[in-house]
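Incident log, support desk, overnight shift.

02:14 A customer reports that sequence design results differ from what the structure should imply. Their input is reproduced verbatim below. On-call engineer (initials T.W.) acknowledged and began investigating.
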């Protein structure tokens, strides 16, 4: 048994690594998710968000427009007029954040990935 094989065997025995289980990208360990840290969530990829938060409880995709429902009304202010006129596609994902709150992240395509452009933490049961 080589040294590397012995280490993997030990990790498997301890349950630290599961065979066939997907691993998060190495850079994910450096991204702590804290609701109060706007910069932590800004630019997070959709893939990274799904690794951190799991399967979303709700998903939607829509075209950016000058007028959006109240829940989404901050989004047009994050883009320039050309993007709004072009109807940039937005992906919206919502997860349970705690026993009493949800978190919604909005993603736009950029740099070859869907990246978070905005988020909102809101109380469960709140209607918009």
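02:41 Re-run completed on a clean worker. Output:
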């Amino acid at each position: 048994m080589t040294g590397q094989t012995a280490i993997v065997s030990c990790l498997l025995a301890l349950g630290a690594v599961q065979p066939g289980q997907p691993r998060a990208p190495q850079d994910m360990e450096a991204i702590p998710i804290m609701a109060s840290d706007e910069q932590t969530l800004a630019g997070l990829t959709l893939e990274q968000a799904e690794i951190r938060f799991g399967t979303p409880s709700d998903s939607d995709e829509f075209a950016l427009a000058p007028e959006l429902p109240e829940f989404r009304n901050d989004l047009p202010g994050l883009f320039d007029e050309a993007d709004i006129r072009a109807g940039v596609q937005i992906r919206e994902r919502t997860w349970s954040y705690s026993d009493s709150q949800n978190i919604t992240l909005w993603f736009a395509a950029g740099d070859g990935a869907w990246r978070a452009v905005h988020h909102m933490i809101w109380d469960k049961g709140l209607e918009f």
